[in-house]
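ok here's Nitrogen regulation protein NR1, seq below lol
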Amino acid sequence: MSFSVEVLAGIAIELQRGIGHQDRFQRLITTLRQVLACDASALLRYESRQFIPLAIDGLAQDVLGRRFTLEGHPRLEAIARAGDVVRFPADSDLPDPYDGLIPGQESLKVHACVGLPLFAGQNLIGALTLDAMTPEQFEVFSDEELRLVAALAAGALSNALLIEQLESQNMLPGSSGVFEPIKETHMIGLSPAMTQLKKEIEIVAGSDLNVLIGGETGTGKELVAKAIHQGSPRAVNPLVYLNCAALPESVAESELFGHVKGAFTGAISNRSGKFEMADNGTLFLDEIGELSLALQAKLLRVLQYGDIQRVGDDRSLRVDVRVLAATNRDLREEVLAGRFRADLFHRLSVFPLFVPPLRERGDDVVLLAGYGAK
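and the structure came out like this:
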């Protein structure tokens, strides 16, 4: 494979640096154009049998105002139908929708094109298109590498669409809605840092977004997770806790996903894992940065497809679980070091929260002292 861990990590981290969705989308396709050395790239949203450009790089600006119907653009229709990476050869009979739309190359036809359909579960939500004037430009990249790129792009688009839906339901700032205050969770503090944190908790609690909670040891990340769960529609269902740092590698998979009788020595009966226990509720994974890369891959699959496999079982079980994860590590650094998967980092950090240490909370120390003296 010609993609390095550093390249994939860089793409994932760029997606987290953007302030708004549009900024993140633009960073994504600009980075891809550099990594793949293509002449043009575009991120498209799928809606009502048409593709709507969200961000472009290397294409004429008027592309952003266009709507590409499937009926009028057979190459895009092929991407929508494919369900996987689509490579169009230079001599393809299907016209490229961007012919004549690459500035400075208006008289030339695109010679190489790759289409990546983007899915949220089984639903087509968009596409990523990559174009080059050199016929062999994308041959060096395997389908598996391009699928990884598609997974990162699909995650970014899916999260953006979900947040857009929340905004339309008066659940985020900028709407006219009124937030319900979070229930009492012993989150003591009136400092600007804590006030901002409580506001962010109220924003995200009512959604179904995954949340990554960062902060030093002892800052109260578990309290934040409890507040999010209590303020969510899942509050009537379980909040299940798992400390990933306390899991020996030999039992970690069974703790997460369960096992069947006879799966290993000592497995004398079937046992549900934490994901099954948290079905229709919330799973809080504390110290997620301690999970092995092998378990990270299995966790990623659950986040992508919503199914698990008990150890020793060939059958898949569907689960509906919201994941809250906490860490005292800098996961961006862990990704760059190859100790944490870039795609899992991107899936978890949809709505990152940071719990400030006490030294950054001003007079909150007085309030905490008073609370402790009760």
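fwiw Confidence is low (pLDDT under 50) at residues 170-181. kinda neat tbh
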